[in-house]
Each structure stands twice: as structure tokens, then as C-alpha cells.
Amino acid sequence: MARHTLRPALLLLPLVLACGRQQSADAPSGGADPDRIAVRTARDPDLAIVTGGDTAATQPAAPAAANDPAAPPAAAPGPAPSGAPAEGRQDANEILRRVEQTAAGVRTLEADFTQTLRVPLLNTSQTSSGKLYQRKPDRFLMRFTEPAGDVMVADGRHFWIYYPSTDRTQVVRTSIAEGGEQADFQRQFLSNATDRFVATLNGEDAVGGRPAWALTLVPRRASPYKVIRIWVDREDHLVRRFEMTEENNSLRRVELRNLKVNEPVADALFTFTPPAGTHVFEQ
What we know:
The protein is mainly β and 283 residues long. It has a single domain (13-26, 33-53, 86-282), classed as Clam (outer membrane lipoprotein receptor (LolB), chain A). Helices cover 14% and strands 37% of the residues. It is built from five helices and twelve strands. It has helices at 13-17, 34-41, 87-104, 187-190, 193-196, and strands spanning 108-119, 124-135, 139-146, 148-155, 158-162, 170-175, 197-207, 210-219, 225-233, 239-246, 251-261, 279-282. Strands 7-8-9-10-11-1-2-3-4-5-6-12 form a twelve-stranded mixed sheet. It is globular.
């Protein structure tokens, strides 16, 4: 098993690193504590745990033909010519460009999150939830309500990770990359997205009662993901749900609700002091 690292992704970012430790009823028992194993390996890029998506996007209906008796019958759909992008892919790229423009204008972000994780290698399912805050370029906070007390903080210089639900004595600290790239919540998927992914529009869906486009993104180059799905709000072009399929076929789904953009965020949120009696481990 490869040694885990905190850097391989941003939305892997806290969203993977800060996964919950709630174990499913069908998790294996006996021997080593499978819950603790899941926590340790959740930070391993080779064991990126994640949520299974159960909402299938619906394909939009084809437009009705014009009411013209002389019009020839519509041709049956067929594959796009080799080397030519399908119309759906062109639509997806246009949506991605709007998403990237919107994300570039986000200076602060506040949202409730829910993350569901499924780990086939461990036969476990996990769920976590809480509140996240971001202030570009290098401030970030995930504060968990489930499991309560778990926290991940980027203070401008370091990431601090403290999961008392797993180990009350351990704090992990790692340096933030120059420029704060690790602390930019959506940068990993939404920066230069049309160059980095082959995008396909899969129709429309609803997230939190809001209409959204469902897009599939396939990496053009080496990536820890086989495929990524995003749900883009049709009104404000913010991504409200991410779903990632890892190289090991694990699935992760992260959903954001009650988004607040570019509102003041207090400095005090992005501070962390290791609790008394804890040991700080440098990564």
C-alpha cells in the first residue's frame, strides 16, 4: 500500500481527508478495527474512499419536429463522426466555461456539506456532514457535526487536521503550497476544465430542489480519478454536487447546500490551536 499523502488533490482535499468515520452495518468485523483502517486509508490516494451516487441524470427529450408535411423524416441518431465532438459535448464545454468564470469570481464561500463514502476494498460505507468555509487564496475550514468535533483548518501557512472521533491524541499538520493552491476549494476540478477533461452533458437533474445540469468529465491526462460527475446549478452556475470514481473503483459524493458566496468571513474561523495533550505529526 502506498504511503498516504495530503497533497494529491484539493477536493480530495478536505472532502476526502475530512471524511467521516461512520461505519455501515455490513462492514467486516473481527481482527483489526475496520473503522480505524478506513480512517487511515482514506488519506491514501490508492484507497481514495468515496460516495456512491444513486441519482441518475435523465437524458433530455429530443426537440419536436417542425409541423411541415414536406419535411423529410428525422434521421435516426448515430455516432458522431470520428474526431468530431458530439453536440452534447459542445454544450458541456460551454457550461464548463460558465462554471469556470463563476468560480473565478468566488472570493469567499460558505456552505453546508454532506459526504458519503463507499470503500469496496474495506466493504464499508461512511457518511459525514458539517459546515465549510473558504476564503481565497489560503484559508479553509471544514467543521464537522457528524462526527462531531472533527475539524480541518487551513490558516494560510498550514493545514491542521484533528479527528477526535478517531484519535483524541493526534493532530496532523502539513504545509500549504505556495500561492495557497491546496486551500482553493474548487480549483482542482474547475480550473482550465475544458482543457483537462473530455466533458459530456448527461441531461438535467435536481439538487436540493434546484434544477441542475449533470456533466460527466473524463480526465485527458493522468489523474487519481477515472471519471468525475458534477451537477451545475442552472441559475448561478455553481457546482452543488461532485461525484468521483477513483482508480480503485471507490466512489465519493459531496453535496453542497445553502451556499453563500462573497460574504464576509471572520479571520477567527481559520485558526487552530492543538488541544492540550495532543501530539502534532508533520506531513
